[in-house]
Amino acid sequence: MITFTSPEDYTAKNNTIAGLFNIRDYSETIDAKKAWINLGGWQSWNPAFEVEPGKKQPSLKNKAIRQWNTWLTFPSSKFEYSKNIVLAQFITYLRCEEEYLIFASLNNLNQKLPPVQFVINRKENTVTVELADKDKEWKKGDLMAQIEVIKASSYFDAREKLEKIFGSSNKESPFYSPRFEQISFLGKNALGWESWYNHYEKINEKLITDDLMALKDTQNLIKVLNKSDYFDKPVLQIDDGYQIALGDWEWNKKLFPSGPEKITQMISDEGYIPGLWIAPFIIDLRSKLAAEHPHWLLRNKKGNLVPAGMNPRWGANSTFYCLDLSQNEVLEHLDKLIDKAINTWGFRYLKLDFLYAGMLEGVHKKACPSYQAFNNAIQVLTKRVLNNKGENVAYLGCGNPMELSYNNLPLSRIGCDTLQHWESKLMKFIGWNGRTSAYLNLKDTLGRALWNKIIFANDPDVIFIRKENCTLTYAEKLLIATVNILFGSQIMYADDPATCNSKEEIELTEKVAKLIKIFDKEEFAVCQTGKDIYKVWSKSGKYRGEISLAKNNHYVRGLYENF
Q1: Whole-number pLDDT of residue 431
Q2: CA dihedral angle for residue 123, residue 129, residue 133, residue 139, rounded to 10 degrees
């Protein structure tokens, strides 16, 4: 482990350069010019896959959507990526064939260290360590960063070495980490249904209850798998659309006249864990909360509000904003919100979304760097591991800064949102590389496969079975399911069980369930061999195949031939 300390007393006005690595000092065979370079990831929605030798990483600098890109990029970076510069965060690696050189930041909340960006210079064969420490007051000798440099001879060797450092979600492993204990009640892998990716925000009490009842009467994935007792109790998660407004996290009585308590009781009575989506850090200016507490919102040096995102359904002019997490009143508000969701409404699985907003830079009322405010807030959000009845509570992180989240949010989304279409053609056309897309989601899932069950219990997002409101082919649906099964720790889907009952849909359901059962005891590796082409193989040597995400050529070959 290499440590970097502050050489003097100072307040960081911008990002500090903490140190530099010469790659040749750590490997005679890894050359940045010839290596595939993994991007690690700033937050769960930014590109996270490998960059091919000689290629630039996906653009997040499009001037037409400059504001969008600020939400996906490392804050205040001094560097611009190019053909020779690759910017990666938290955990990155350079790979030549099957040899790895990994750079990992060993941040944790006890040390309260700033997040790290690795600036990989292909031409100079170096790695620079950049810190997101703006406004941090450093004293001479303060610990600034801890970096582990790992040489690995194969994918599985890399996993074993990362497991020794970060721990494992596998209870049978000698490196089992207690941070995964809070999600262990979900089972070895989590399973469930959620309302997004089909109904989207157009939900109401009748729709949720009808789908809940249909889940027990139809040949759906949850019912098929529960027959074999493969999973522990499944999750039923209500997503966006129930609330009065973004920031006003009360239930819309026109849509849910009975309120949340009746629904959570029904969900529990049917054998499910009640789940709920909340985006606690962001707010619509039209909300009651914003009107009553305008001083709670984060502003810049000019006194203007700091935008946190754009959505036509949220916010005046489609823009929403973020709370100033440095304020005690804001933290108390967040604490009461989570307590109400768990102990009044009855939810035991909370999807905490748009968490990147907590790392946006501005003028905090209580002067501090953004990462310290974020650390304090995330601990407030996740401190309840049991409800007042003594039942377990789990959290799913989404849109979250990866390095600052892995301790408190061991179950985490590890890619951009998926979609019921292979691509979002308009978003691709305008160059938005954080777009919802089945294609990009798969690339992210494969790109962060090395992390699964070590850094996070990876949530790769939902699979698709349905034909209605979905243009994915049978082969694409099977491809998505296979990637999620091999490299994820949660299987969720969002299909309407009452209408997803054709012969083809039931056949696909049975096939996906079979794959889950067969691959349960296997551990898989993945290695990119060409543009959107990957080879995959099991540690046991029993299974070997190829995955293609290439244009007009989406397939899985080889893996199914032994059964």
Answers
A1: 87
A2: -130
